[in-house]
Amino acid sequence: MTPRSPDLQAFLDTLQTSLCGAVAPDTAAGRMIARAFAALATPAAAGTVAPSSLPTNGHLGGALASAATAAPAVARHAAALGALTPRLAWHRRDGAEQVGPAFYAGHANAIVVGRGGLEPRADVLIGISLLAPTVAYPEHRHPPEEVYLVLSPGEWRQEDGPWHAPGPGGIVHNRPGIRHVMRAGAAPLLATWCLWTAAATAE
User: Smallest Cα–Cα separation from 15: which of 85, 79, 104, 94?
Assistant: First the structure.
């Protein structure tokens, strides 16, 4: 079996604990989480990633400090993420310049697991999204099913439903193809997301 670095394994272990502690296993989200982490039980070869950052990363420390005051499982995941961040390559969403200057200057994403990440693989995609205060991530949709672990204050919406604030440790489950959007308020928004891409790859 390919060895996995201790800091990446800690990140994945704390993510699994946080998700499984917040989601019932007999729900759609619970089943997706089970599939993803069953696949992740077999590590893939490590990727080669050149670490990089963006101006929005200046908000990362404050967001992680806020997450550290949440429930113990969430705080442990925030600590594991903090230990991993120096290895990540942060980037803007494709086409960000077309959304507007506030979004272009006020967001950062990083792939942890999946193509372009620390462990490239085709079945699971795990990453981090960070929004500066008052910045909104544009509405979007994608075929893979997705689960967010929310690490900070912020608001979320699906389709034409109401905005809601899951809070640190909250879970957002996006079924395949659903329209969804998120936005930061007075504090930066930080979240870890996990997509089950094996089904989409097989189509």
Answer: 79
